Amino acid sequence: MKKYDLIVIGSGAGNIVLDAAIEKGKHCALIESNKFGGTCLTRGCLPTKVMVTVANEIMRSKHWSKLGLIAPAPQLDWEKFSARVWNKINETDSVRRYYDKRGADTYHGTARFISSHELEVSLNDSTEIVEMTGTDIVIAAGARTRIPDLEGIDDVDYITSESFFGEDWPDKLYKSLIIVGGGPIGCEFAHVFSAFGTEVTLVGHNPYLAPKGDRAQSEALAQSFQKRGIELHLNKEPFAISQNGNSKSLSFRDRDTQEITTVTAENILIAPGIRPNTDRINAQAAGVSLDKRGYIMSNECMETGIDGLYTLGDINGRYALRHKANYEAEILAYNLYLREQDAPYRRASYKYTPAVTYTWPELASVGLSEEQCKRDQLDIRVGKMPYSHTGKGYAMGYDSSTKGEAFVKMIVDRSTNRIIGFHACGDEASLLMAGYVYLMQNSPHEIPVLNPELKASEACKAARLLGSKDIEVITPDNIMSIERSMTAHPSLSEVAAWVTEYLD
User: Fold this and answer.
1) 479 and 383 both lie in a single domain
2) Average pLDDT for residues 214-232, to the nearest whole number?
């Protein structure tokens, strides 16, 4: 059995911990069952944003006439466009080569726990099974599309985000597409294909699009989608799917009236949410606890309650966002390999986790929504300002006719004047949000103890005793105010944030 100081399962954000361990001379292994680089690089953030950027330019061109520009509408070159998408996805090869050169052992295969610190890895390109043990193991195996239990689903060649950026990548643009799911993934695909000219029908379980954001954003997005001709069916429960030749159908009922509707298109994208890959890695054999959704339970130090077992990213069930996974990985790398001996552990604070939905308009949020504040009976002040009330907004083509389409919204605690929520809707909303994330993330606030029933290390317990003092008060002009915060990924705000890494 091979022995390692550190084993990382999953080659996404966990690579940050791997890099830190390698720098300390640790003997390390990296295991990846799919493409090296994780969800973000191969089927998530990056290939989708290549698509979104093109869709945004098409949508922007529709406003040229308001600016006094006369030009032919842009035409999509599917072949050239496809090549750009796959150039990004194929960077996966360089990830494995990088770690091979750094001396880590890389395994392309599926890891399964056989005990708390023992794994067997079934290699993808052979029948060989490699057994290994690690002093520390980081479980960063991610998640995958949650496939709903629909009548007939086993007989239909539907697509998911995984298969779309794989064997189901189309040779040409779909004429029509049904999307199941009104969250960020479903909305982004709806935006992209509608802009490209596909007839899009979106069926969502919730009454609102992108329901985790502020209601004003959701309503603005729905209005924009409907204006563009996207057919929306919200508050619906799909129950059956079928295929007839080159067409596919989805049947659903209204969750209030129970009225049944059937829609038909060339293809169907299933994107109602995700499920963790805990079953694939046999996580329970490691002794870790799973919540009712199947995610690995862990505390704010990324500890699972089993000494030497840690988890981060989508598989822990706290925000399926790459920047959140990076944040966790940086904290874990610090705690295990980078901190000075007497320095306290860092703990993760999720209170001000930024989120962006890359649609047209773009949606960006951090902190509480107005609806959450009302539910919690908080005494708040709310300010909402449209882009059109600024000179730059007017220059971009926003005016009184578009004031509901692009705006920022601030929510403030009435008694303290502290910002507790910020939401932007419109061009580069993620950029407008970035400064608020740094202000809010670095404000003094208590970090909750997560899953206190789990065994915690003595170092994590000691950090908890510091209470609110474990949020180091950093002056806004100190680079640590950026480095200790989450920066929405992938957005241009990363350019301004990551420049700190290039300081000599």
Assistant:
1) yes
2) 97
